[in-house]
Amino acid sequence: MALPRSAFDQYMVPNYAPAAFVPVRGAGSRIWDQEGREYIDFAGGIAVNALGHCHPALVSALTEQAKQLWHVSNVYTNEPALALAQKLVDATFADKVFFCNSGAEANEAALKLARRAAIERFGEQKHKVLSTLNSFHGRTFFTVTVGGQPKYSDGFGPKPQGIAYFEYNNLDSLKALIDDDTACVIIEPIQGEGGVLPASREFLQGVRELCDKHNAFLIFDEVQTGMGRSGSLFAYQEYGVTPDILSSAKSLGGGFPIGAMLTTAEIAKHLVAGTHGTTYGGNPLACAVAGKVFDIVSDPAVLAGVKAKHQRYLAGLEVLNAETAVFAEVRGLGLLIGAVLRDEYAGRAKDILNLATEEGLMVLMAGPNVVRFAPSLVIDDTDIDEGLQRLGKALRRFVA
Questions:
Q1: How far is CA 93 from CA 96, 117, 152, 217, 325, in A?
Q2: Domains, in order of start, for the chain
Q3: 104 a known binding residue?
Q4: Of 157, 285, 344, 357, which is most buried by a Cβ count within 10 Å?
Q5: Is 222 known as a binding-site position?
């Protein structure tokens, strides 16, 4: 017997406030709940379901691997992990890959590596981590502190030290902080949770130059922007600015939990055996699925499709906004899109989310003032159009 939504309140720790309905089945960019009601999915599991729900190729990859080998731990390696690592190395700046289970773990590994490498090269004083205000890098105590949003990190006691914050897209703000004691600078090429705010090319180029000047590592957090989300395989390729370390997760597994940290051989050598690890990271099931995701998403036709679908969203949102005048700006890259509310509607993104749900559309927020869309990278154009129609109904009710 299926348990209702009320069972969450009875049995689960209350750190989430899930929607009133319980999804039970998905196919492509559609989801059905316990009552059989259908929803179009513009949320994508928060930029995770890169190929939608139950993509046949992913189901096949998971099923075939499940018949062979589930888990052996990192006392051994395995074929799916080796194959996935080779694909990531061949397609990026990186020489080496570390697999884990989530974006937070990928960023934790990136930050630990950067600090360790900096300290081993230059001494104990070179440990400072610089991050942008209003960023998001995960929920471990280290990454949530690096994130620069006190609402997520306050209340847990003394925080990790040596972390300072600068303003996103403000190079002068970084210049005022960075020095020869800086181990690394960590940046999202597009701030996701912070409002779907893309970096300017000049800003990222300037950050790269400052890192080089001060012998600091540049970390790109591509947990949300990576694996085709921007219209390039990784967003750094869209900008033409290469990091020293990169984190990936979310779309990498297409819904199966996996994270990865990518870096160069010269930097990777500072994580010798025993310095970092994970029990489940790189397990055969996750890597088999992620390998298939990679094969599909890296297809130039799929990446071109992401950019075409971006334009379709923008055109549709422009039509809706001409009628309802809800949004001040629509921004983002590829299929990570943020619609910023006008000042008179500030703080009410959740209201639009709730109304959209009532109209059979799943969307996200990126803070209280931005409605976020992060759908499947291969969402059908008909689903985009119908989803925007449902959003239009929600927006008309919102302004009525």
A1: 9, 18, 32, 14, 43
A2: 6-55+300-399 (3.90.1150.10), 69-297 (3.40.640.10)
A3: yes
A4: 285
A5: yes
- DSSP state for residue 250 in the 8-state scheme: G
| Residue 184 binned pLDDT confidence (cut-offs 50, 70, 90) | very high
The Cα–Cα gap between 149 and 156 comes to: 14
DSSP conformational letter for 344: G
> Is 63 known to sit in a ligand binding site?
no
Angle between helices 381-399 and 349-358 (to 10 degrees): 120
As a whole number of angstroms, the distance between CA 139 and CA 152 comes to: 8
Q: pLDDT tens for residues 222-270? A: 999 999 999 999 999 999 999 999 999 999 999 999 999 999 999 999 9
Residue with tokens 């937070």: 104
Say whether 30 counts as a known binding-site residue: no
Is this structure's pTM higher than 0.70?
Answer: yes
139 labeled part of a ligand binding site? yes
Residue 124, annotated ligand binder? no
| pLDDT band of 148, cuts 50, 70, 90 | confident
- Only one residue has tokens 């949003």, namely 149
Question: Residue 294 pLDDT > 90, yes or no?
Answer: yes
Question: Tell me, what's the pLDDT at 8?
Answer: 96
* 86 in a known ligand binding site: no
Q: Is residue 136 part of an annotated ligand binding site?
A: yes
